[in-house]
Structures are given as structure tokens and as C-alpha cells.
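Milestone M4 deliverable, item 7.
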Amino acid sequence: MIPGLADLEFQAEVMGDEYLDAYKEMRDAHKRDKDVDVDDLGDADAEKIRGIAGGLRLFLSRLMLPESAALMTRVDVVKAGAVIESFDDWGKALLHAEGVEGGGARPVWGLRLPDRVLLELLHWTLELYTGGRRPPTSPGGSAKPSSKGGTRSTGASRSKGSTRTAGRSAAS
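Output delivered:
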């Protein structure tokens, strides 16, 4: 592994209901607590965006294996470049930082990631766990109905010749 990089391990499969519940909780929290539309961050202030990033980290951690989840949500309290203590919650870390003697302590994410990387991870999980369809965010939104059972028929091919494909040949 290259120094400074981390391997984030996600669960191979997340049940649809678990994913949808986590996604809905994240969206609702951002709208209720931060009064911010995560689809339009252009006018949001820095503190509100920080709250959104924290909620997104929590959401992603629910899809990760335990070690990666702990790394994603770890908040370090630092003073003069040194880690004083680590927490699993931004609020607890902020409270601790405010109480550090002499001041100058502040919370920082243990795993420093640009916000755009967090958003890319969100989009990747949408693709991975939902097949690329965005989960419904309102009661009126619903998933497409499942396809009917039975066998599918295939039409006759217009091509009468064989088609070469990449791959192994019989001789290899």
C-alpha cells in the first residue's frame, strides 16, 4: 500500500431495505437539521456543508466493514499538529477541543478526504447497491415493478454468419 492511502472495504451485499433506510435517514437529516438541499450546495455556508459531510461519512460507514467504518468516522482532536485524542463523533470531539487547556485545539477527520471524493463514494454506492437507480426520497416515489416471471423469447438473428469475439480460443 502507498503511504497516506487507505483501503476502504465495503460490504459485498447490503439488503435493499437497509440501504434505503440509511439513504433516507441521511437525506432527511440534511434537510431537517441543516436546512440544506444536498442536490444544490451552491448557497450553503461552510458549517452546513461540514454537517453534510459528516452525515455522508456516517451513511457510508453503515455500508462498510467495521475497520473501514471506524476509520471513516474517526475524528481526531489536534493541537499544534499533534493528535490529543480520537472520537467516533464530531460533536464529542468538538466539545473536547473546546475544553482543552490553553485553547488552540480543533477537531479534524481522521481520514482526510475531499468532499468530492465523498460524493463519488456516494454515487458509487448507488451504482453498487441499487444498480444505478437513485432511491426514492419521498413517499410518492416508488421503484419500478419487478419483471413478470416466465421465460423470455428471443427474436431470430438477422446475421447468418458467425461473429468473432474476444476471449480464449479452443487451442489455449
